[in-house]
Structures are given as structure tokens and as C-alpha cells.
Specification:
Layout (H helix, E strand, L loop, with lengths): L5 E5 L4 H12 L3 E6 L10 E4 L5 H6 L9 E4 L8 H18 L7 E5 L3 H4 L26 H16 L2 E7 L2 E2 L9 H15 L9 H5 L1 E2 L2 E2 H13 L6 E5 L5 E2 H11 L14 H4 L3 H12 L6 H4 L2 H8 L10 H4 L9 H14 L6
């Protein structure tokens, strides 16, 4: 029964975690959020401020997690190397499960991503991996912290008897500020600067991505899949890709994003023009835009993650995801990708983050 389902959303202040918490609350769950900093009121029923690298603090939080039945792990910590990614993110999950030692766990969901198929940032896309990405594909050789996160969950599930699911989104789209992986906010800042300065609104990525078929993952559809999997016994102990359900080509979507901002899409120059390079002098420009339009006083680094969007848009291979595992079990949710972006843009304008 739903009243017996007590969810812990780990990383509740992030993109996937905040949307998961909102969807769980709307579905009638009791939701506790966990993050390193304080959580704004109204999002969850309770909040635990905890740095999961602190084993003593995690042990001390055990009583606060004693009633948790379902866990949604929506966080990771980026480090300088994949070896450090493996070490840190593995320790975080080990400490989490120590804190949950008294909890009557029924289900644990782990959110990872397409680096499962593409490899870590230091060898991103090497070897030209097969696309569409199939949930049945074997792991890549070498270090990958997603694999170590999975292994911690699998071992805990085996020893404690709970069920697990793994969810692998593509590029995440949604409204949250200060998140390194949120392309929609980054592109909104870029478009706003192009409009203010007259710079060309040029697609910054590779020609392969500009012309290739692509998909993305709206944070809302990820949240729907997380709840569906927790409520569907047949979904237990399965890994799921998750994307919106439509496909597009970036040259088509780029023109429509340009239209939203009343810009002309620049002709593609035939090579990448990295956002990190284009925007390296944009801090003072953004500060001036904020002042002139009376926007909320966010710096450009508070909002935009140019390096991560460069990584996503600079791939030299086509990247689309196959959702066979959830589709055959009846998960049928769909989200149009254009509105994934424009809904975020609308809210950024409404919240006075970007100019009209």
C-alpha cells in the first residue's frame, strides 16, 4: 500500500532527484530528501543534510532512515580522474547503505547514464560503441564508476533481499540551477548572450551530432519511469534505458531553439566551435545582461555548464537509446523533446533567470 511506502531520494537538490521527489509526492508517497545542503521547504516531507563521504555522519543518520522502504539514488560526485570517480562514488554508496542498515528496504533504484555505453570522460566514445544502445550490451573494459555503483547495489540487494532497478538517461533536460549536466539552461544562457551581443547562434558541436539522429531525456519522464519501476513487480532486478520516446536531428532542433529566442540559426561551419571557447569572455557580458534586465543575480558559472554541453554535442558518433526492457513491460510514457527545452526556457523567463 502506498501509505507504507517511504521513499528516500538521494541527491534531492539535483536535476533527477528534485523531479523524482516532486513526482513521488504527487503520487502519494512519503518522501525524505537527502543532500549535502539544506533543502527548500515544500518539496519533501523531511530532509537529511548529509555528506555521504563522511562515514561517521552517515552512521549517525541511521535512526533518521530507519523507516525507509524505497531508495532512489540520483547523485554522483565528479572527480579529477575516473580512478577517483570510482573510489569516491563507491564509498558514497557504501556509506549510504551503512546508514540504511536498519531500514526495511524493498526497492533501490540507481540513476546512472549513457557513460555506461560510452565510457568515462577520459575515454568518452572511444572505440565507436554501437548505437542504439541496448540494455543487454556488455560492460566496456576499463574503469567506469557506474559499474562500481551498480556492483554495490547488486551486492547489497543479494545480501539484504531487496529488489533493484538501474535507470540510464541520455542528456538530461529540466529546470534546476547550478547543475553541471543540464543542457537546457546552458543553451538558454548561450542564446541570451548571442541575442544581446549579435554573436552568431552557431551549433557548437560536431558535424556528426549536427546531422545525426538523437534523443534526450526529460527529467519528468525519468521520474515517471522511476515510479513505474517501483510499482511494477515484473520490473525488478532490471536495467532500463530512458529517453523521451521521440528522435530528432540537431540541425532541426537548433533552428527551433533559435526561433524561440528570435534568433537566426547560423550556418554550421563544418567543425566544432566549443562553447567553452566561445563563452570564455562572457562573464562580464552576462553580468551586464542581468543588470540591464533586472534578472536574479546569478553569475554565468551559477547557470551554465559549457564543458558538459560541449561533451554531449561534440560526440563523433550517433547516440540514441533503445528502451526495449521497459516497453515490453508496458511503460508507455512519452515526452516531446522540443517542449522539454521550451518548457525550461519558459520557466527561466518566468523566474527572471534569463531575459524575455
Amino acid at each position: 500500500m502506498k501509505e507504507e511506502r517511504k521513499a528516500l531520494v538521494v541527491g534531492v537538490s539535483g536535476l533527477s532527484g528534485s523531479y523524482a521527489a516532486q513526482a513521488l509526492k504527487a503520487d502519494g508517497w512519503h518522501v525524505t530528501g537527502l543532500s549535502r545542503s539544506a533543502q527548500p521547504q515544500g518539496v519533501v516531507d523531511g530532509h537529511i543534510a548529509l555528506d555521504l563521504m563522511d562515514s561517521q555522519a552517515a552512521e549517525a543518520a541511521r535512526s533518521e532512515m530507519a523507516g525507509i522502504t524505497h531508495v532512489f539514488i540520483c547523485t554522483w560526485s565528479m572527480q579529477a580522474s575516473e580512478a577517483e570517480n570510482v573510489r569516491v562514488n563507491k564509498v558514497m554508496l557504501e556509506n549510504l547503505f551503512q546508514a540504511l542498515k536498519q531500514a526495511p528496504l524493498h526497492h533501490v533504484a540507481l540513476v546512472t547514464g549513457l557513460k555506461h555505453y560510452l565510457g568515462p570522460f577520459e575515454s568518452y566514445g572511444d572505440g565507436k560503441p554501437y548505437s542504439p544502445f541496448l540494455e543487454s550490451q556488455p560492460r566496456l573494459p576499463g574503469l567506469n564508476f557506474y559499474y562500481d555503483q551498480e556492483d554495490v547495489v547488486f551486492a547489497q540487494a543479494k545480501s539484504r533481499g531487496f529488489q533493484w532497478t538501474v535507470h540510464r538517461p541520455h542528456s538530461m533536460i529540466g529546470y534546476v540551477l547550478g547543475n553541471a549536466m543540464n543542457m537546457a539552461v546552458t543553451l538558454a544562457v548561450y542564446a541570451s548572450i548571442c541575442k544581446a551581443t549579435g554573436r552568431p547562434f552557431v551549433f557548437p558541436g560536431s558535424q556528426a551530432q549536427y546531422n545525426a539522429v538523437a534523443d534526450v531525456t526529460d527529467a519528468r519522464i525519468l521520474a515517471k519511469q522511476l515510479i513505474w519501476a517501483a510499482n511494477t513487480p515484473e520490473a525488478a532486478n532490471t536495467a532500463f534505458n530512458i529517453a523521451n520516446g521521440d528522435v530528432f536531428r540537431w540541425y532541426w532542433l537548433w533552428a527551433r531553439i533559435a526561433d524561440y529566442f528570435d534568433l537566426d540559426p547560423a550556418p554550421y561551419p563544418g567543425h566544432p566551435t566549443l562553447l567553452e571557447e566561445q563563452m570564455k569572455d562572457a562573464g562580464p557580458i552576462w553580468d551586464d545582461i542581468v543588470t540591464r534586465h533586472g534578472l536574479k543575480p546569478n553569475t554565468i558559472s551559477d547557470l551554465a555548464s559549457f564543458w558538459h554541453s560541449d561533451a554531449d554535442l561534440g560526440r563523433e558518433i550517433e547516440c540514441i537509446t533503445d528502451m526495449r526492457n521497459s516497453r515490453v513491460l508496458g511503460f508507455s510514457a512519452y515526452q516531446g523533446s522540443l517542449s522539454s527545452f521550451t518548457d525550461v526556457f519558459d520557466r527561466l523567463r518566468k523566474e527572471r533567470i534569463i531575459p524575455e
